[in-house]
Design brief:
alpha+beta; 6 strands
Amino acid sequence: MDDKKLDELIQRVDLFHGLGRDDVAKIFSKGMTMRALKDDVVFFQGTVGNQMYIVLGGKVGVFKGDKCIAELRTGDMFGEMALVNKEPRSATVKAIESSHLFVLSESTFQYLLTKRVAVQLLLNIVRTMSHRLKATTANSQ
């Protein structure tokens, strides 16, 4: 991956805030990417997973039953709770349009990343989850 693309990812993806180009390049070398065609399900509510995803292009929807409760675009992450609490997925995620996703597994966190990078990623995950909780609370009032 070229430096320009890495710089763009560092700026657009909250998960990578506070990390340098070398760290992000290393993360990408350890993860994998996947394509999800329109209407493909990435994962189902109630299933257990150990991977999180970053939208590199396209758009995915987060569904509770038939209701889309959130749309995620380039730079957004989802599935991160699976890395934190090991509980069943709280929603179904499917592609609203053809999408390109980066997949980061729990084993990458545990075995392949330095502690400094893993801690920064986890702090970024917690920050994102906190923002989502705050937005949900504000919307329910």
